[in-house]
Design goal:
Length: 94
């Protein structure tokens, strides 16, 4: 189990550039949908491997993105960027 957790930890580190690039891109509905899928998947897998802090923040962000996705997301861009930055920081310390 520890070996699988170590492999997963390395895969998490490989996700950092994805999130960093999202911060640089102009936000579109398609980009948010892709982000939502990524965050949802990360929420479940992080919890499964015992990374509870990452699972918690991504789960909360998943719910936020669902709500934002159903409305005009432009007023929420700063919140989305803050959440992404938080995810990056948690992954970096794992």
């Amino acid at each position: 189990l520890n070996k699988l957790k170590s492999i997963y930890r390395l895969k998490l580190k490989e996700e950092i550039p994805y999130f960093e690039n999202i911060l640089k891109e102009p936000f579109t509905k398609e980009l948010l949908e892709d982000l939502w899928k990524k965050v949802h998947k990360l929420s479940g897998s992080a919890g499964m491997y015992g990374f509870l802090e990452l699972s918690t923040i991504t789960h909360e962000f998943d719910i936020q993105l669902q709500e934002i996705f159903e409305t005009d997301f432009t007023p929420h861009v700063h919140v989305i960027k803050d959440q992404i930055s938080g995810i990056i920081k948690v992954i970096e310390i794992i």
